[in-house]
Amino acid sequence: MIEIINLDKTPSLLSRFTRELRDVTIQGDSLRFRKNLERIGEVMAYEISKKMDFHDEEVVTPLARASVKEISDRVVIATILRAGLPFHHGFLNYFDRADNAFVSAYRSYREKGDKFEVLVEYLASPDIEGKTLIIVDPMLATGSSMELGYRALLRNGNPAKIHVAAVIASQAAVEYVAKVFPQDKTTIWCATIDPEINSHSYIVPGLGDAGDLSYGVKL
Question: Which one of 1, 31, 61, 124 has the largest count of C-beta atoms within 10 Å of its C-beta?
Fold first, then answer.
């Protein structure tokens, strides 16, 4: 059974970073917006590390030898472009020895309606066979981009463990990902989970378009 961890259930400093991401009076500062995504990535990386395997190593200090714990997992951080980049950077600050993968998964709207399909056009990934795969995307609205990004990554191997990390997710997306991802090795992490998505498939209350807020409005 997939474990779903909503970090908002235990209020922490993470709650302030998430609040600032949502606040329209702060969102105009794109540098601060990106920094908050990065900081949330750092906090979530720390929490995810608690689920990893460790082994004992010995280091030499100026006074003696010390036994220390070191992560055994071989980590690959994968990002859904483009909004995921500052979030990804936060994870990489902590998992600084990780390999990295990037997937472009975007919505292609049909004419002027609300209907769209998700397209994957780019993949840059190392071998993920037997590794711990962390897929990060700040907004998990429907789960479709996450699923297609994951299936694209499978071209380069079958991971031993999967962590899906989102800043804000809809309840529907969490349920969808929990249904389509492998039950025996997936954990879903969210800074917070919102109750619904609107007719445009945007999370409500959400925060708007994380990519535009990070890097400017796209055509």
Answer: 124
